[in-house]
Amino acid sequence: DLKSERSLSFEIGLNQPLLLFDHPLIADIAFYDNELYDMIEPKFIQGTSPRIQFLNTTRARITGLDFNLKTFIIDNLGLDLSVSAMLPKDIDLDQTLKYRSTFTSNFKVFYNISNFNLFVDYQFKNKAEKVDNELKLQIKDYDARVNVHLINAGVRYALPSLPISLSVTAQNLLDYYYTEVPGNLGKTRLFIFQISYNLK
Q1: How many angstroms separate the CA atoms of 159 and 157, rounded?
Q2: Which of 128, 133, 152, 155 sits at a 20 to 30 Å CA gap from 121?
Q3: Measuring CA to CA, how many Å separate 82 from each of 122, 139, 149, 189?
Q4: What predicted TM-score, i.e. pTM, was given to this entire model?
């Protein structure tokens, strides 16, 4: 009996390059609205054999505002700041949609020197306001959730005479524990080693 989910969305924004004390700055701001009909989401189904099933759940609206700012403090040292705020609304129940964070932000500092590019960033996401209360019958501490604080860092080196670059990235450097959905731990500390080849 699953119906196709339908949606109507629009976005309006502004992207403006500027100069701040003779340093380039790019500001980007956007407002969006997503209208969702017969929204499809996983739902916990009770019974002799409990399961999770995808169902048409509600009529929903997600509105939000995104802001991004990029600039250089000095010639080689730059900042990249992103902030996003949204209101995920269940229209039928007049409440916040489950499993959604309403505020996220990312603050990144990067430094370029010779063939090296270094960066460190801090990511924040507030804890979801609501989860599915029916999960309490199957998952202990189903509603245990925290704000997410992640620190990532990395370095990239481009070989001088070859179209090859080497990079090392550390995600969730401080090994912060959080859940993405009830009972599911988010990514723990992860190191990524990468070799890239440019075909151009």
Answers
A1: 6
A2: 128
A3: 11, 34, 15, 23
A4: 0.83
